[in-house]
Amino acid sequence: TQGEDLFFRQTILETAHQFAAVVQGDGRNVLGRIGVRRQRRRGEGSEFHQLRAYRPGDSLRQIDWKASSRYQKLISREYQSERDQQLVFLLDCGRRMRHADAAGEHLDQTLNALLLLAYVAARQGDAVGLLAFGGVQRWHPPRKGGDPVRRLLEQTYDLQSSPAAADYLVAARELLSRQERRALVLLLTNVRDEDQAELQQAVAMLARRHLVLVADLREAALDAVFDQPVRDLDGALRLHAVYDYLERRRLSHQRLRHQGALALDLLPSQLPAAL
Question: What is the pTM (predicted TM-score) of this model?
Fold first, then answer.
């Protein structure tokens, strides 16, 4: 029921605040316990961080020639990943997300991962927004400051998967009309063969302006087939059918990457740490 969903998602929100309290209080990496790792990639990114002594392996573009002249030795610029970025979730609420496994509906598990990533992004100083589509139309523009996780929870606590088909092209056009600034767009969905052509068109449209990541959820029942011994013809046909289906998924994700997008093929339970 919606009441149960609200209670469950409120629990997620309280957990996020516990993360914040513990991390700020004693510095322990609570997020690390669930697979979230903070890593500074020195020398990468495009935002200036600091000057330092030259190290073997630094590229020529990193060398600050004025500082090198002043100090009479080679000095390099160090960069870091930019802050104040835009993160927009493009959330499929259509019929594919109604699939359920032992941990619940795909949509519910996706919402939990969404809230966790929103918390991490907000702590990094990024703005977080959401566009829901597929029988549901909801727009929350990217914002920062305040309590973005609570704002997202208020926008998503009553979301339900619908029997409608998700229209990727309509969603892409809607997002392009609303989100002009370049953003990381996380498309959270469950794609089938008949959806692939439309999805690729939508990703091509979005990739002209944004960096797109497609998180394509996979049913756990597919993986379970490989754990079952093949004892008869039906079992052999089932195994080969799953092999064939997963190979088509792999090729479709490869085509998305050729369009400049990122792609993840994973179980819903793997989504939080992977994002």
Answer: 0.73
